[in-house]
Amino acid sequence: MFTLPAPAKLNLFLSIIGRRDDGYHNLQSLFQFVDYGDALTFSAAPAHELTLTPTLDGVLPEQNLIIKAARLLQKHTGCTQGAKIHLTKRLPMGGGLGGGSSDAATTLVALNRLWQLKLSTDTLTELGVSLGADVPVFVRGYAAFAEGVGEQLTPAFPDEPWYLILCPAVEVATTTIFNDPELVRNSKALSLQQWLNTPWHNDCEALVKKRYPEVAKLIRWLLEYAPSRMTGTGACIFASFNSQQAAEEVLAKAPVGVLGFVAKGCNQSPLFSALAELDTQPLP
Ligand SMILES: C[C@](O)(CO)[C@H](O)COP(=O)(O)OP(=O)(O)OC[C@H]1O[C@@H](n2ccc(N)nc2=O)[C@H](O)[C@@H]1O
Ligand SMILES: Nc1ncnc2c1ncn2[C@@H]1O[C@H](COP(=O)(O)OP(=O)(O)OP(=O)(O)O)[C@@H](O)[C@H]1O
Fold first, then answer.
1. What is the pTM of this model?
2. I want to staple 240 with a disulfide (CB 3.0 to 4.6 A). Which of 55, 161, 171, 250 is the partner?
């Protein structure tokens, strides 16, 4: 039995540069991980037995990206081994923190280990993108400048500040935002070098603020303390601070009912730090 993290990601910027024929959008984004997220525990089970506990409200087990990732791995390899998976869910759903995608990536990496499949990271990444555009960055595990639908990744090394991440009490469905006629989807593509010399923004933010006044209100509140932005298609917002204490102080003042957390930006995913630690121990 072993436990691995499924960290959250932030989109430090997000720019939508066009819509493809299949409906997906080409984008440019800078992904960074934070040292806070879900945790998954994996243990061996008899052949064909795949279980996930607990179930998530509103998500049928077979629709859960964890089960989908496990089934995809079985189908790709013909493996019939079983697994018991326990999920400690900390990340809000529909928060733009990539929780479901991160759970899927951790499952691919963990079952590759548990079932001794020896699939390469390239293969796991290819399997991952069929589960969601955000899965590849979690499988690769390095902060990255993303292009394409989010799967073309160039390693990047942004500063690693402390973040305050606040979660307005709304769930924003990624599909709804990408299908909205008012979404800005014609931003100019820039090189990473140009991005590093340009103020960062999120092309979904104005639209989400318009559709979800709770998000607009919370960004206005956080802007009083530090430059603040939305991650992904929302609803969560973030601001960076020089110290954990500075971020905690603002969290302590957050409006009643707003959930949030303080976490450190990481250019290497906590999944891979944990995996390296695990690999110093014998296989279960
Ligand atoms: C917005 C981001 O969070 C930025 O990191 C991601 O691009 C979203 O990634 P994700 O949640 O893994 O997205 P998916 O599960 O693949 O797609 C959900 C829906 O979002 C839309 N979608 C997603 C990604 C993308 N590049 N273009 C899109 O148009 C599609 O309508 C798709 O049906
Ligand atoms: N293990 C899972 N954890 C969270 N959501 C899941 C999971 N499996 C399936 N889902 C479904 O995926 C949807 C999106 O969840 P997720 O937490 O990844 O949103 P998100 O943070 O907005 O993602 P993104 O940043 O990729 O847009 C949920 O509303 C839920 O229906």
1. 0.96
2. 161
